[in-house]
Amino acid sequence: QGNMAFTGKYEFEGDENYDDFVKKIGLPSDKIEMGRNCKIVTEVVQNGNDFTWTQHFPGGRTTTNAFTIDKESEMETMGGKKFKATVKMEDGKIVAEFPNYRHTAEICGGKLVEISTTSGVVYKRTSKRIA
């Protein structure tokens, strides 16, 4: 806990099962196109159990989720919907239950590995550390 393992800037490197996943969670097709192979830069600031998780999209759009482990926080989904969730830390992984999927994030060999699961579809996104 609190080893600041997540702090850094990560650039999208690759993903698996993107289309199946975003269709399952009902993203509109314009959002699906926008997100495909999108060079998202994820910036994470970790201060003990407090996190600020910002995604910078090409074209200047950003989304930020600020949360504290084990406390209910207001978050925003990929599609821009607001919801409340309690983010947990399990075996060094951040785990969040979104309204229609479960999301985990971990640092694996210097990369940010995020896995979202919904109705049997597993979407995996890998980002490489750039700062």
CATH architecture: Beta Barrel
**End-to-end Cα distance:** 21 Å
CATH topology: Lipocalin
CATH superfamily membership? Calycin beta-barrel core domain
Strand order of the largest sheet: 4-3-2-1-11-10-9-8-7
CATH class: Mainly Beta
Cα-atom Rg, whole angstroms? 14 Å
Say what oligomer this is.
single chain
What is the overall silhouette?
globular
Main sheet? 9 strands, antiparallel
Strand content: over 45%
Number of strands: 11
Kindly name the structural category: mainly beta
Instruction: Give average pLDDT, whole number.
Output: 90
| Low-confidence spans | none
Protein name: FABP6 protein
Subcellular location: Cytoplasm
InterPro entries: Calycin, Fatty_acid-bd, ILBP
Keywords: Cytoplasm, Lipid-binding, Transport
Write the layout of secondary structure elements.
Elements (H helix, E strand, L loop, with lengths): L7 E9 L1 H7 L4 H7 L5 E7 L2 E7 L5 E7 L3 E5 L5 E5 L1 E3 L2 E5 L4 E7 L2 E8 L2 E9 L2
Antiparallel strand pairs: 1-2, 1-11, 2-3, 3-4, 5-6, 7-8, 8-9, 9-10, 10-11
